[in-house]
Amino acid sequence: CHSSGTSPRQSPSPSHNKQAAGNVSASAAASTSASASASESDLVSHHLAAAPTTPTTLATMPPRVPIPPLSILPLTSIVRTWVITTISSTRLLTPSLAALSIIAHAQGPILSPERNRYLRYLIKKTIYKQFCAGENDAEVKQTVDGLLKLGYKGVILGYAKEVVMNESQAGKLNESHAGKLESSGDNDAAKACIRNEINPWAQGTLRTVQMTSPGDFVGLKFTGAGSQALFDLSKKTGPSAALKEAIDSICDLAAARDVRLLFDAEQQAVQAGIDAWTLRYMREYNGKTPGKAVVYGTYQAYLKATPSILASHLAAARKDGFTLGVKLVRGAYLGSDPRHLIHDTKAETDDCYDSISASLARRSYGSVLKPAPGETEFPPVDVVLAGHNHTSVRKIRALRDEQAKNGGEQIDLVYAQLQGMADEVSCDLVLAGRVNAGETKVDIPKAYKYLVWGTTGECMKYLLRRAQENKDAVQRTRDGRKAHTAEVWRRIKATFGFGPRF
């Protein structure tokens, strides 16, 4: 993950894997080869490390202890997550959110983390470290290397600069012509927009692509390019000349480095424009290599219109002969998107997400993802399933295990969770990937972590959204806290000999 040049992605070292699997001896591995295709809960335990060298029947072997998914994480990460989820699932969250919102929008010398070094240090050592990759190339590389050593297949890296509007601001944007700078005749204003907004965003995103390795993803948020991008998107026009040049350069570099781009979904005031731009760049870049997507669009399952929008994009992919890149999420703008556009219940959102993911994995239409009029053939798709719901992940894993068992065709699919969240889901995927490695009759899940980089000040709005997301998912946050609490107690008991060490 150097800032220049391309370095091959290093997989976890054999010594690391040996240690993570409980120092399984060669003789023990040989004696248990008959159960190599067992599930991850039966494969590795502390008992295997002490397996006898004399023949032992299955009836006399001691029971095996499953590896807890969170056992692969360092203690500092466990404790930090426990503290944050404890705050997020109690009444402390409301005042914490209020304080974080003030800091995220502060410009003064006391409350701005860019101007107050003591506040910056406090934030960077707590919530910033939990959710973000770093402020520069060296810090990002250290964070990414740590994830790879744990067993993640790669990362989704994003540049933190973004613009988040409330519903009132979004409404004013649609009525405004202030953003139409490049064609307004005001050369000074246009040059200032390019110099102060578009160019810094482009440079930051290009640097992000350079930080990643082949096979990684880069998240791209168009509104980070500023007022011109906001105007173009809200009016559903193509990008202005300077903005188009910037996006083209980002896509060209990503394609050359074998890095994939995730065009982020944003608020509904600009989402229709983002959909149009996404299809435009998919047509240009996803048809160059058959069966491989460079550009992915983001589809939010909590929106009622998502199945029909995705169906129309699938029809376009079939007609124009390109692979549709799909990043499926539940949604992240519940607090700002118009409520009537969103499913009425969480159960409806869950059903939409699960049904779409199953249709994509099977490459077949269903009761939720229905074909566009006149369509019957399902085009090639590459998929990123981004989500923290363990039930949804288990459903799609079971489907893909069945496909692998029967020798069926499988699409390119990876799982992604946000850095600092849903570690119990991510670590379960990582362990399954380790256990299933080399198997042919079971799916080998590929787990990725999504994280952003940037200065503490640049990351504040992103951190605020993560905190708000925890507020909107209280039960999931409580489940995460329980899982981390159990892991802390397990390690304490193991220290005093009351349980296995992993």
Automatic annotation (TrEMBL):
MF terms (GO), sorted A to Z: FAD binding; proline dehydrogenase activity
Bilayer-crossing regions: none
UniProt entry tagged with the keyword Cytoplasm: no
Composition skew (Polar residues), residue ranges: 1-24
Top-rank EC class of the record's enzyme: oxidoreductase
Start and end residues of each Proline dehydrogenase domain: 141-478
Name listed for the protein in its UniProt record: Proline dehydrogenase
Annotated organism of origin: Lachnellula arida
Similarity annotation: Belongs to the proline oxidase family.
Role played: Converts proline to delta-1-pyrroline-5-carboxylate.
GO (cellular component) term, any one: mitochondrion
Keyword annotations from UniProtKB, A to Z: FAD, Flavoprotein, Oxidoreductase, Proline metabolism
Essential cofactor(s): FAD
E.C. numbers: 1.5.5.2
Signal peptide boundaries: none
InterPro entries reported for this sequence: FAD-linked_oxidoreductase-like, Proline_DH_dom, Proline_oxidase
Region described as Disordered: spans on this chain: 1-33
Catalysis performed (reactions): L-proline + a quinone = (S)-1-pyrroline-5-carboxylate + a quinol + H(+)
GO biological process, one term: L-proline catabolic process to L-glutamate
